[in-house]
Amino acid sequence: MKPHRLALILTALPLAVHAEETRVDAEETRLDEISITATREERASGEVPQAIAVVGKAELEDKKMFNVKEALQAIPGVFVDSKNGGFDARLIIRGAGLKAPYGIREIMVLRDGVPLTDPDSFSRLDFVDTQDIERIEVAKGPGNLFAAGSSGGAIQIFSKSVFDDAANNLKLGFGTQGTQNYHLRYGLTGERQAVALTATYRNMDNDWRIWNQFDTTQISLKHGLLLDGGSLESELSYAEANIQLPGAMDKTLYEQFVDKGKQTDTSEAWKHSGRYSKVLFLNSKYEVESGDFTFKPRLYYNTWYHYHPVTGIVNESEEWVWNLGADLEGQWKHSGGTLVGGLTARQERTPDSRKYQYGQVKTTTSRGACVDSATATGRILATCSDAKGRLAEIDDATNLLTGIYLQESWRPAERWIVDIGVRYDLINFTDDNQQFWKYDYAAGKYIKGAGPSHSEKTYRLPAPKLAVNYKLTDTLNLFGMIAQAGQVPSQSEFSNNPALEAPISRNHEIGLKGRSKDWRFDASVYVNNVEKEIVTITTGGVNNFVNAGETERKGLELAGSLNLAGGFELGGYYGYADYTYESFSEPVGGKNLDRAGNTVPFVPKNQYGVFLGWASPTGWKARLSSNTWGSYWLDNANTEKYAGWDWVTNFSLSYEQKGHSVTLNADNLFDQHYAMEVKKDTIGKVTYAAAAPRTLMLTYRYDFQ
C-alpha cells in the first residue's frame, strides 16, 4: 500500500468511528509498565538501562492472539513472522535467531519465570496458551540475568495470575479460513487460597494454501496459596498441538500466488512437513520475604512427545523427552540498592529419539505412482504423505546446563542506578547416534548411513554486564550499557558439526527513554560484535552450520506514542540495521569464498510502522496499524535482493458494555500478497515462503463479574 493511502486512512479513521467520545481527563496519569526480565528486579521500564519493550494487557486485548507475532511485530529490532498463523514463529532479535530454519534459537523464552527454552537454546511455543497472556516483555541483546546461554536477549510471557478474579472470562471467536477459537478461564479466590482452570481450543483450516492446517487443545490448572510472608503458586498444564508446515515455492509458483492469493503447490519434494506434539508441563514457584531478604525458588518439569516430518526425514520421540530444572533466586534490599543472585540447573533427556524415511514417495522411475521409499529407485520427486517408513537413525542425547548469576543494582544517588552483574553458564552435550540410512541431496534418494558415533562437548559461557541509568528529569532517563553473552549451539547444530565453538556477543549501547502522561518514547543506538557467529550454509536444500569469523551489527531503534484529544493515541517505530561480516569464509563447492564486507542476509536495513488507536468512555475502541520491512539480501554472497513489503495493515474495532464485548480483527486489511521469507542457497536456488492474505475474525467475550 502506498504511504499516501495510509495517510488518508489515518485521517479518515476518526470520522469512521466517532461516537460520543469525550476528551480524556488531562489530569489522568499514564502509568509506566513494570519490567523484571532484564534485571530480575521490579522496575519501571523507563528506568531499565537496556533496550526493552513491554506489550501490556490493554494492547493485547485488541488482538486475536493466535500467535506471538501479533504482539511483537511492531517492535524495532524484532523481526517475527509465522508460516502458518498457529504457534510456529520465525523470530529474530537484532540478528540473533537468524540461522534457525525452524523454531526459535539464540533467544531465551520464559513464561512466568520458567524457561520454555531447552538447555540447547531451542524454544518451543506449542504449549503456550496465547489466550492466557497478561503481558509480554522483550529485553534485546546480551545483558539479561534470565538469558542462560542466549545472546539474543529474552522474551518473557506473563500469564494471568491465579489470584486475579478479574481475569475470568469466556471467549468465542469465528473467522475466515475456517478459524475458530473457544476459551474459558474461571477461578475462585478464598481468604488464603485460589484456583483457576483455563481451557482453550484453536483451529485454522488455512485453505488459501495447501497443507496448512493448525489446531491446538490446551488445559491448565493453577493453584495459589498465601503463606505468612509469602506465597506458593503451582500450575499443571497439558497441550496437544498439530500444525502442518507448508513448503516453499519457486519463482513461478510465487508469481501465481501474488496474482491469485493462493498457493496450490510447493516446489520442494517434501510436501508434508509438520509438527504434532503432546506436552505435559508442571511448575511451582515459592516466594517468601524475611526482613530485607526475599527467596524465590522455582521448580519445573515438562515432558513431551512429537512427530515431526521435516526435509528428508521424519523425526519421532519414541520415548517422551523430559526437561527438569530449578532456579534458586535470592534478593537482598540494602541501603545502597538491591543485590540479586542465584543458581540455575536444567537437564534435558532425549532417550531413543528416532528418525525415519518417508514411507511413500514418487520418484523419477515410479511413473507418477507412490512407492515404498525402502525399495524405490530414482530421485525422489515428492512425498505422498507424512507417514513414516524405514527406520533411518536412533539418537540418545543429554544436555545439562548449570549456571550462577549475581547482580548489584547500586543507587549511589537519587538519580543514579548502576547495574553490575554476571552470569556464568556451563553446558554439556552428550550424543550417541546410530545412523542406518540418510538422505543424499546430490543423489536425491536414501543411501547407507554413517553407522555409530559418539559426541561430547562442554561449553563455558561467561556473561558480564555493566549498565547505568541517569534520571535527567522527571520524564527523561539516559542509559548506557556494555554487556557480553555466549551462545550455546543447539543440539541439531552440534550434531551437524561437533567442532562448532560457542559464539561470543559483545554489545555497546546508549539510549534515551521518555515517560509522561501524554507521551512516551524509547531511542537507542548500539554496536554489537559477534565472534565465531554460527551461520547456516544451505546447499541443495541441506543446512550445514559453521562458525563465521566475526560479524558487526550496528543499529538504531526508535519507538514512541502520543496521547491526543478525544481518546486518540498516535505512535510509530523505526529500526535501522547495518549487519556485516567482518571476516567470513563460506565453503561453496569445495572452495572457501571470502564474504568479508558483505551484508548479513534476510535482515532489512529499514523496518518501520505507525499506528492510530482510539478509545471512548462509551465502550468503543479501534486500532489501525501498518508495518513495513525494507529490502534485504537473499544470500551470504549478496547476489540478489528481495524488495520486502510495504504498509501491511491491520485493523481492530471493538465495543464493550457491562462485561460483554465484541471485537472485529482484520489482519492484512488490504489483502497484499507477498513473501514473508525469501532465501537463496549456494547453488543459486531461490525459494519463497508466502505470507498470509487477509483474514477476518469476530470474537465475543464475556468477563465474569
Automatic annotation (TrEMBL):
The record ties this protein, via CDD domains, to: ligand_gated_channel
Assign the protein's first listed, main location to one coarse class. membrane
Cite the entry's keywords alphabetically: Cell outer membrane, Ion transport, Iron, Iron transport, Membrane, Receptor, Signal, TonB box, Transmembrane, Transmembrane beta strand, Transport
| MF GO annotations | siderophore uptake transmembrane transporter activity
Indicate where this protein resides in the cell.
Cell outer membrane
List the record's Gene Ontology CC terms alphabetically: cell outer membrane
TonB-dependent receptor plug domain residues are: 47-153
Q: How does it sit in the membrane?
A: Multi-pass membrane protein
Q: Does the keyword Repeat apply?
A: no
- The record places domain TonB-dependent receptor-like beta-barrel at 265-669
Q: Indicate the family of this protein.
A: Belongs to the TonB-dependent receptor family.
Q: Which PANTHER family match?
A: FERRICHROME IRON RECEPTOR-RELATED, FERRICHROME OUTER MEMBRANE TRANSPORTER_PHAGE RECEPTOR
Name of the protein described by the UniProt record? TonB-dependent receptor
Q: Which organism is it from?
A: Candidatus Competibacter denitrificans Run_A_D11
